[in-house]
Amino acid sequence: MAREIKIGSRKIGDEQPTYVVAEIGINHNGDLDIAKDMIIKARDTGADAVKFQKRTPELCVPKEQSDLMRETPWGYISYMEYRKRIEFGKKEYEEISNLCEKLELDWFVSVWDGPSVDFIESFNPICYKLPSASLTDDNLLKKVRKTGRPIILSTGMSTLKQIGNAVKLVSEDDLLITHSTSTYPCDPLELNLKMIETLRNRFKCPIGYSGHEVGLITSVVAVALGACLVERHFTLDRAMWGSDQSASVEPGGFRKLVKYIRVTEMAVGDGIKRVYDSEKSSLKKLRRYL
Q1: I need a surface site. Which of 38, 83, 167, 249 has the fewest CB within 10 A?
Q2: Domain layout of the chain by residue ranges
Q3: Which CATH architecture has domain 4-286?
Q4: Tell me: the pLDDT tens digits for 185-217?
Q5: What own/partner pairs with CB < 8 Å and gap ≥ 24 does 194-199 have?
Q6: Cα(267)–Cα(287) distance, rounded to whole angstroms?
């Protein structure tokens, strides 16, 4: 039986086209015009969805980091002030939702706390992403599961035991797990793509891949290894200000990524050996004993 989950109008699983997510995250730097430009350019690359991040800074910023000062596009301000400036509110998400609907592009968010779930619920989201940082937040996992919406669970910074505990809490129904290593950017030596197979053997739900590496090849390999969803950070320019920019893919690269994934889907095949019609002329010319 094929592993499958339905997100919005799309079926995602072993026998479906890879669902490609352009994670805008916070690469918009709190600028709605930049976010809109990113949405349009992501759609043009062939991505199936864009993803944002939603936090309540007062709950998500550790107290010891709150007053730390840092250089930002808005000057020398505290970390708390920075986190507040890059958060979008109702007006911004209404415009994001309207634009994505117009472009027929899926959108969803990673939620980092309970109030963020309540906020996003008003937009009737197609699913929720639980970031790696929240995998051990039992209260958040329970709250998201109570919405009844599909869940994408990322697994960076986690042991197999912790992953198992989280899956047990939310159940494998309407769940997609993504293998991930939470280093930005991630060294290929730590990508450990064979974990996709490990997760496939351990759980019965679909398995995807959330990558933070530089380059495209390894994300394509993830598809060959069984990932039915690929998520990569997306940016207009890797030289833009922001902590995630260096591990992101620009529009030209993302377009190549989608193309390479589609070619890989065709090339992987079904594992059944056959003689193709295209081989028969060579068979007649080259093989002496039929």
Answers
A1: 83
A2: 4-286
A3: Alpha-Beta Barrel (3.20)
A4: 999 999 999 999 999 999 999 999 999 999 999
A5: 194/225, 196/222, 196/225, 196/226, 196/227, 197/225, 197/226, 198/160, 199/155, 199/163
A6: 25
